[in-house]
Amino acid sequence: MTDVPHLWRVSSSIFMAALLAMSSIGCNVVRMTLNTTLTQDDVAFIVPGTTTLTDVIKKLGSPDSITDSDTAVVATYRFLDLRYSRVNFGYLAKPWTPVDPDVIFSRTGLGVDAFEVLCDRKWVVLHTGFQRHLSRPPFLIPYPFQRSRRLLPNELPPFGLPAIMAAHGSGDIRSSVPSPH
Amino acid sequence: MKRGGALISFLVVALLLQGCAFSRGTLGDDVPPEIVETIQKGTTTKEEVFRLLGAPDRLLPLNGRDLFQYYRYDAKAASLLLIVLNFTRLSVKSDDLFIIVNRDGIVEDVLSSKRTENLEFKFWPF
Q1: H or E element: which one contains B3?
Q2: How far apart are CA B71 and CA B73, in angstroms?
Q3: CA A16, CA A24: separation in Å to the nearest integer?
Q4: Model pLDDT, residue A39
Q5: Parallel/antiparallel/unpaired status of strands B65-81 and B58-62
Q6: HSE (CB half, 13 Å, CA atoms) of A99?
Q7: In the 8-state DSSP scheme, what is residue B76?
Q8: DSSP 8-state class, residue A44
Q9: In degrees rounded to 5, what are phi and psi of residue B52?
Q10: 3 state DSSP class of A92
């Protein structure tokens, strides 16, 4: 006698596997990284007024660029974590058509993030700041029609003001690392 | 017998690597650390730096001093191509060397690090 629950389990497993395979047909997932992504935790050791650029380099490596400003020097660390996903629904029609139809949805975000360190002439860090340019779409949902959303407060870097602006006295300058007191 | 084993091993390796792609690209020359170590703050001159490392990739004025930048980029890409589902991961890192030279043409500071040493081929994008 046929074990119906077992048969049901096997057939449902096959169906789920087929569904999964169909959903991943023509899928491409690409990730590109430039340098190592820096987070607030990675730079928490920097104490403006005390830490020197040499200390920063010992921990983070040398910056990607050093530029001059009116009053000080800005060292910039650039990093990128680009994600790209793409699905070609035309693959579904391939077995039944003489041509190769393409119906492609893809989504990515462009831009290079940066961490800027403003130093005085003696290489003591005066100010730090993150610059965010990259909008991060959901990795596995290559749906290009959704509205771009603003980053939530908890997704923003704690202090969004680029360090270069501190050199020019632009905006409300705050210390990059909160005072322990 | 040995030849048969080698053939089977080759076929197994070839089968496992089927659908894999490895690519690598570099930009700029490698700066050997032993050469960087010979550059001494306060004694090495600008001319000696040029003789050791050649012309810099970038030259910037920096608060009355000159900043020489030497850089090298290394990119490694690996792909797993399963026809209907493809994974690709591209990793890029750079080595940067900054040499700050004062108005007298003497090296004032040397900032360098090698980030490309830890660069690996990665498939998995998640």
Answers
A1: helix B2-17
A2: 7
A3: 12
A4: 83
A5: antiparallel
A6: 3
A7: E
A8: T
A9: -75, -40
A10: helix
**Nearest-angstrom CA–CA distance, B75 and A33:** 10
Instruction: Please tell me the distance from the alpha carbon of residue A136 to that of residue A110, in angstroms, as a whole number.
Output: 9
Two tokens, residue A57: 């380099």
What's the rounded Cα separation, in Å, for the pair B95 and B113?
Answer: 6
Bridge partners of A105?
A: A87
Task: Name the minimum distance, in Å, from the CA of B69 to any CA of chain A.
Answer: 8
What stretches of B18-114 show up as alpha helix (H) in DSSP? 33-38, 46-53
- Burial environment of residue B111 by CB neighbours within 10 A (0 to 12, 13 to 18, 19 or more): buried
- CB-based contact B74:B92 (threshold 8 Å): yes
Distance from CA of B82 to the nearest CA of A (A): 10
Among the listed residues A126, A158, A150, the one whose alpha carbon sits nearest the alpha carbon of residue A41: A158
Contact B63, B25 (CB under 8 A): no
3-state secondary structure (DSSP) of residue A154: helix
Q: Can you list the alpha helix ranges (DSSP code H) found in chain A?
A: 4-23, 53-60, 163-167
**Token pair 């608060």 in the structure block, residue:** B63
Chain B CA closest to residue A88: B84
Per-residue pLDDT tens digits for B41-98 = 999 999 999 999 999 998 888 878 889 999 999 999 998 888 778 888 999 998 889 9
B93 and chain A: CB distance < 8 Å anywhere?
A: yes
pTM to 2 decimals? 0.69
Structure tokens at A81: 């974590």
Backbone angles phi and psi of A167, in degrees to 5? -70, -25
B82 touches chain A (CB under 8 A): no
Q: What is the mean pLDDT of residues A94-99?
A: 81
Per-residue DSSP letter, A179: -
